[in-house]
Design goal:
alpha+beta, two-stranded antiparallel sheet, 4 strands
């Protein structure tokens, strides 16, 4: 494995996790949005990762990091909250709220943050090894 390939793999992981954190932040920001341009409440979004394949080698296709393949909407039904005075309440007084669970989003945010930190640690370790190799060559 080449040294610069390690940097590329870690960078792809950091980029993907940053987009995941942005998506989670968007979910948290819209946790109370009952009306969207498409109609109905906001729907939770989730990031789907896939392996980024590099060139073929004697051992088959080698992985070259990760990438975001798509962002999908959660199919869970909206939460029904009784609030007859809300402008979006139905005839029975229930409001369809987004299917965003704050606790789940915070756990996902911590997971994404830790994955980002792990990629930074791998990048720093590769950088330190490269510097040591340069020192040995002197």
């Amino acid at each position: 494995m080449g040294l610069f390939r390690v940097f590329d793999i870690s960078a792809s992981g950091m980029t993907a996790e940053r987009l995941r954190m942005d998506t989670i932040a968007n979910n948290l920001a819209n946790a109370n949005t009952t009306r969207t341009a498409r109609g109905g409440p906001y729907r939770r979004q989730m990031v789907v990762f896939e392996e980024r394949l590099a060139q073929a080698s004697g051992y088959g296709l080698r992985g070259n990091g990760v990438r975001v393949s798509r962002i999908v909407e959660d199919n869970d039904p909206p939460r029904l909250v009784y609030d007859p005075h809300h402008p979006d309440a139905n005839e029975q007084g229930y409001v369809e709220m987004p299917n965003v669970n704050i606790v789940t989003e915070m756990v996902d945010m911590i997971t994404a943050s830790r994955a980002y930190e792990a990629n930074v640690a791998a990048l720093n370790a590769a950088k330190a090894m490269a510097l040591k190799a340069l020192d040995i060559g002197r």
